[in-house]
Amino acid sequence: MMATGKGRNPMRVGIKDRIACFQWTWFTMTMATGGVGSVLWSIPFRAEWLDALGIAVFIFNLCLFVTNSILLTLRFRFRPGSFTDSFTDQYESLFVPSFLVSIATILVNVCQYGVPNTSVWLLRTMEVLFWFYLGASMLTSAGMYLSLWSTLIFPIHTMTPVWVFPAYPLLLSAPFASSLVASAVQVGRMDVLNGVAIAMAAVTAQGTGFLISFTICAAFIYRLMTQKLPRDAQRPAMFISLGPSAFTSAGLVALGNQAGDILPPDFMGTPHSIVILKLLSVAAGLWLWGLSAWFFLVSAGSLWKYVRPGARRSRLPFSVTWFSFVFPNTALIMATEQLGRALGSRGLQVFGCCAAGCLVLVWAAVFVVMVRCLWRRELLWPKDDE
C-alpha cells in the first residue's frame, strides 16, 4: 500500500505498519459492546428475540475482544519496547485499564446469558473469577495511578474525564456482584454462593472506585471553570464523567433489590435490616442517578455546536474513544431500570427501555463510522510524525 499526504514524501504502509498503530484505546469498543449486552439483559419487558439479540451481542463482543488482544500482542511483537512505552505514554497509558474493564463486561455477560443455560459448575467458576477480578481491579487501579504519578505530569489545562479510567475497573464490582447473585437466584442455587461476603466486598470496592473518581471529576469541573470546554477531539470523553455515579447507582440499587436473597433474616441482629438496606440503597441510588443525569446533560450539551441549525458546521474528528458515547450511558440506563424496579415505576422502566433502543442505535452508528474510517485509512494509519 502507498500512502501520500500533503507536504510529505510517499511512504509504503504495510499491514505490519497498520497493526503497529493499534493501541489500548481499542478496548473501549469491547467495553461498549459488552455494556450493550448488559443493557439488553436489563430491559424488564422480556421476549425471546431480545434474549437472542443479547446472546448475539455477547458472542460478537467475545470475538472483538480476542481480535483486539491478538492485534495488540502483534503490535508489541512487531515494535519491541512498545509494551513498556504504552504504560508511559501520556495518552495511551490512561486506557490500559480498559482491557480489564472489557474482561469485567464479558464476565458480567457470562453471568447474565451463560449461567442460566448451564449447570452449577459455571456459577461456582464465576464466583471464583469474581474474587480474582476484585483483587485485580484493586491492584490495577492503585498500580496504574502510582505509575502515572511517578513517571508523568498531567497539566490541569489538559484534564479530561479520561483521568478517571484507572479507577474504572473498581466501578464494575457492584454490577458484577449483582449479576452473579441474579444468575444464582434465577437457577435456584443461591446456596452455592457466599452472598454476604460477595455483596460486602463489592460495595467496598465500588465505594473506593466512586470516591477516587469523584475527586477527579471535581478537578474536571475546576478545569471547565478555568479553561472552558475541552477541544473537539476530547468532547466524546466528557461522557466518561457520568460513569462513576451511574455504575455505583446501578450496582447499589441492584444489590439493595436483592437484599432478601443475599442476607439472613436477622442480619446484624435486627429483623428490619433488609428493609432498611433497601431504603438506603434506593436513596443513595437516586442521588447518584441525579448526578449522572446532570453529567449527561453537560456532556451532551457540549456537542451542541456540531448539530445546531444555522451555524457553521464543525467537524467532530473520529477516534475509537467515540465509544465513550455508549459505555458510560449503559450504566445510566441500567440504573434507571433498577430504580424503576425498586420504586415500582412503570414510567421509569418504559423510559429506560426507550433509552436502551436509542443506545443500541448509537452503538451501531459509531461502529459503522469506525469501519468506514478503517477503510478510508483514517484509523490504524501512521501519522506524519510516526
UniProtKB/TrEMBL annotation:
One of its GO terms (molecular function) is malate transmembrane transporter activity. Keywords: Membrane, Transmembrane, Transmembrane helix. Its main location: membrane. Pfam families: SLAC1. One of its GO terms (cellular component) is membrane. It is a multi-pass membrane protein. The keyword Cell division does not apply. It is found in: Membrane. The chain crosses the membrane at residues 21-43, 49-74, 94-115, 130-150, 162-185, 197-225, 237-255, 275-304, 316-336, 348-375. It comes from the Eukaryota. The keyword Transit peptide does not apply. This is C4-dicarboxylate transporter malic acid transporter. It comes from Pleurostoma richardsiae. The lineage of its organism: Eukaryota, Fungi, Dikarya, Ascomycota, Pezizomycotina.
